Every structure is written in structure tokens, then in C-alpha cells.
UniProtKB/TrEMBL annotation:
The keyword DNA-binding applies. Keywords: DNA recombination, DNA-binding. SMART domains: Resolvase. InterPro entries: Resolv_N, Resolvase-like_N_sf, Resolvase_HTH_dom, SSR_resolvase. Residues 5-147 form the Resolvase/invertase-type recombinase catalytic domain. This is Recombinase family protein. CDD domains: SR_ResInv. It comes from Weissella koreensis.
Length: 203
């Protein structure tokens, strides 16, 4: 007897709370038979979505155990802001024996129509990526012609010293420091590494 597992994932960004709330999605997922539902409030443009990753990992784990796993979402864009990102996730799940169902679009990778929809989505995703690349290329070329210096601006010495001081003499996390001086977390780690700081002195 085939054992089925239905896992649901619901997501909203802060701007979507009223129009596409978590409660609406969760109700639809439960109605579809999902017993386990992961939900979070985070932008679809972010790569790190912890609850989604947990849902994906659990789905793969059940599949490895021999279950017939179906990964449910309310809409395809719950997987990401760009269709190219959604396609990557769907491909990864399918390769690991997990079917994907979108309730709103009636998208189901276990059916011939669902496979056709998936192929069409993949085609549009490729078009989307190529369009973004072309626009980026044109934008960079125009900036070069306008005499603009490309690449990230060099940090001032005072900013570097501020980063070192905050890291060495405070309880601020690296993320807090990055937000305070308006730079990326990777930049903070780079400055710390270059400065040779080994220990933090707490005030």
C-alpha cells in the first residue's frame, strides 16, 4: 500500500499580510490534506528562508524512506519572487522524488498537464533570466559610457576603524554592525580578518 505524505509551505512578506495572509494559505493547505505545514513571514527575494528549507528537507527525507511525498504551496510565487528561483526548487524536489502542487494555479508535476505547465514555466524563467542579464549588461555599458566608476565603492578608513572598534569593544553581533554602518556581513568579516582581530573585548 502506497504511503502518502502531504507537506505544506506558506509564506507572506510584510507587505502581503492583508492580501495574501498566512491564515488563508494555511486553510487551503489543510483543506488539501496537509498535516505538516511550515510557514514564515519573509521576502521571497531572500535566499535564506529557514522554514521553506525545513519543509524541503523533510519532504526529501520522507521520499528517501519510500513515501509518496507531495509538496503543497498556495501559489507558485510562494517559492520565490522570480519564476527562475521557483523552477530551481521544483527541479530539486522532483529529482528527489517529491511532487509539487500549487493550489491556486492547479499545478501538479505528477500529471501530464502539470509537466506541460512546468515546461512552459521553465521556458519563461529562462527568458526572464536572459532579459535580466541583457538589461544588466546594457546598464553597465551605459554607466561606463557616462564615465561612472563601476563596482562597489571603497570603504573609507574611518568606516573601517568604526567596524573594528564596534567588533572589538562591544556586544553587537556582526549583523548588527553591518546594519549600523550600512555594509554587507561579508564585508564585516573581511575587515575583521584583515585587521587580525582574534578576541572580542566586551564592555
Amino acid at each position: 500500500m502506497t504511503k502518502y505524505v502531504r507537506i505544506g509551505y506558506a509564506r507572506v512578506s510584510l507587505a502581503e499580510k492583508q492580501n495574501l495572509g498566512l491564515e488563508l494559505q494555511v486553510r487551503a493547505l489543510k483543506k488539501s490534506g496537509c498535516k505538516t505545514i511550515f510557514k514564515e513571514e519573509v521576502s521571497g527575494s531572500l535566499d535564506e528562508r529557514k522554514q521553506m528549507q525545513k519543509a524541503i528537507d523533510l519532504s526529501k527525507d520522507y521520499s528517501r524512506q519510500g513515501y509518496n511525498v507531495i509538496f503543497y504551496i498556495y501559489k507558485l510565487d510562494r517559492l520565490g519572487s522570480h519564476s527562475s528561483r521557483a523552477i530551481q526548487i521544483i527541479e530539486d524536489l522532483n529529482k528527489n522524488g517529491v511532487e509539487v502542487v500549487s493550489i491556486k494555479e492547479q499545478f501538479d508535476t505528477s500529471t501530464p498537464v502539470g509537466v506541460l505547465q512546468y515546461q512552459m514555466l521553465a521556458t519563461f524563467a529562462e527568458f526572464e533570466l536572459n532579459t535580466i542579464r541583457q538589461r544588466t549588461k546594457e546598464g553597465l555599458e551605459q554607466a561606463r559610457l557616462n564615465g561612472k566608476k563601476l563596482g562597489r565603492p571603497t570603504l573609507s578608513q574611518s568606516t573601517k576603524e568604526q567596524i573594528i572598534d564596534l567588533y572589538s569593544n562591544s556586544d553587537f553581533s556582526v549583523v548588527d554592525i553591518a546594519q549600523q554602518v550600512n555594509v554587507g556581513v561579508s564585508t564585516i568579516y573581511k575587515i575583521i580578518k584583515i585587521s587580525g582581530i582574534n578576541n572580542r573585548r566586551k564592555r
